[in-house]
Specification:
- The protein is of the alpha/beta class.
- The chain has one domain: Nucleotidyltransferase, domain 5, CATH 3.30.420.
- Helix 3 packs across helix 4.
- The longest helix has 28 residues.
- The protein is globular and about 40 Å long.
- The model has no long low-confidence stretch (mean pLDDT 87).
């Protein structure tokens, strides 16, 4: 069994997958959809959950730097409910502050063009969210 990390955007969902030992997160893919048509992601997520035997979803929560919840956080909370209602799987919210900034920095350091960065940034952000969660879970269990 594995965990699935999700970074939700307005037109994309970045996905990352843990290994079976829940130690390492790897970028999986990015799902593209029409602006804010979040329901359209459900069918593909169902297939990924079945294919990879996903036990839990870790969904990045975009908390403001001052700790408050803004519009994007509220949209993400509504998406969490949609996932739970349609996928019958536990969804854990995890603070994702700065993951997109970190992802872009990593891809710039890797000397990827802006076009290539745009295709990779969401799944890399999901990978960072998931890896942070895995590390936190491991530290709590030690």
């Amino acid at each position: 069994m594995r965990y699935l990390g999700i970074d939700l955007g307005t037109k994309t969902v970045g996905l990352a997958l843990s290994d079976e030992t829940k130690t390492i997160a790897n970028s999986l893919k990015t799902i593209y959809f029409d602006n804010e048509d979040y329901l359209s992601t459900i069918a593909e997520l169902k297939e990924i959950i079945r294919e990879y035997d996903i036990q839990k979803i870790i969904l990045g929560l975009p908390i403001n730097m001052n700790g408050t919840l803004g519009e994007r956080a509220n949209i993400t909370l509504a998406y969490k409910k949609m996932l739970e209602d349609n996928l019958d799987i536990e969804v854990i919210m995890f603070d994702e502050r700065l993951t997109s900034v970190i992802s872009n920095s990593i891809l710039i350091e890797a000397d990827l063009s802006r076009k290539k960065r745009k295709k990779k940034v969401d799944s890399l952000a999901a990978q960072i969210i998931l890896q942070d969660y895995l590390d936190k879970e491991k530290n709590e269990n030690e």
